[in-house]
Structure formats: structure tokens, C-alpha cells
Amino acid sequence: MTKRILLLLVITAFAVTSYACSKRTETTTKTSDPINVSDVKVKTMDGQEKSISDFKGKVLLIVNVASKCGYTPQYEGLEKIYEKYKDKGLEILAFPCNDFGGQEPGTNEEIQSFCKSTYNVTFPLFDKVKVLGGDKAPLYSKLIGYEPAGDISWNFEKFLIDKNGNVVGRYKSKVKPESDEFMAAIEKLL
Fold this sequence. Notes:
Blueprint lengths: L1 H28 L11 E3 L5 E3 L7 E7 L8 H12 L4 E7 L11 H12 L18 H6 L14 E4 L5 E5 L8 H10 L1
Parallel strand pairs: 3-4
Antiparallel strand pairs: 1-2, 3-5, 5-6
């Protein structure tokens, strides 16, 4: 009799735990409230201030980049999708960042030269920014609120922004720009 009660208690505990975990998963995968970045101002590589609202009507891909990272070859994929979709309304905004392992130590001029000579990058590169810590760039302060909310975890994390400036997608570094999943998300927005 005691074995049956013990077994019943174990089964009940398992069922309650499973139910609670499933509810927790729903909460963490729920879409976040809309985050709009239109009002954010950024600096171009030559120090000019530019507002994200200047890109209204375009789909944006915002990515923190680095020249000495294992993901640096993604520049090639980024350039491919830029060439494919720029005439349909895609803009890629690349923000060099030295927050992860010192993998972007160069000056703006050195970064531009590297990107042009190594990957023939034609999409805009912006002023080097911080994406971590108390002095993170205002753009990234907003972006990291998108689910799953939290700090940028490495170089080449990507955010998709719709034509009205709303963040609609967040992709970790390992997601290649030319992957079917990523291309489909871009095409859906264009």
C-alpha cells in the first residue's frame, strides 16, 4: 500500500512540474511588446549623426560586427543578401563592436578598408559602438529589449526591423545571413 501511495505522489509531482514548466516556456517565448527604434540617432563612420527614421519605408537588418571573429566570414553572406534585396528595400546597418574578446580593435578607417578589401562590403558601416555595459549605444539599449530580452551574446547578432521601425526578429550569431530561415524572414517583410 505504501509503495502505491509513494508512486502516486511521484506521478502527481511529475505532472505538476511538467505543467509548470510548460507554462514557463509559454511565457519566455511570448512575443515582446513592440519596440520601435525610429527615434534613435546613430553616427556614421565619418561622424555624421543619422536618425534611424531616415530609413522609414525600408526593411533594416542591424548587426554588430567585428573583423577578427570566427563569424567574420558572415560579411560575405551579408553582402550577398544586400546585393539581392537592396533594390527591393533592404538596408543593412553594420555597427563595429569591440566588446567581445577585443575582436574589433581597429579605427573606423581600418575597419572600412578591411571590409572593402576582404569582403567587398558595400552596405553602410557605422561608428564603432558598445553593445554591453552601462555605456552601451542607445540603439542597442532598445534592441536588447526584444524577446528573448537580454544582452547581446556575441558579434554578428542580427535584428530585423520592419518598414515602420519596429523590431520584428532577433537572430543569434550562428544564424547565417544567407540561410533559408533568414532569407524567408526578410522576404516576408519586403
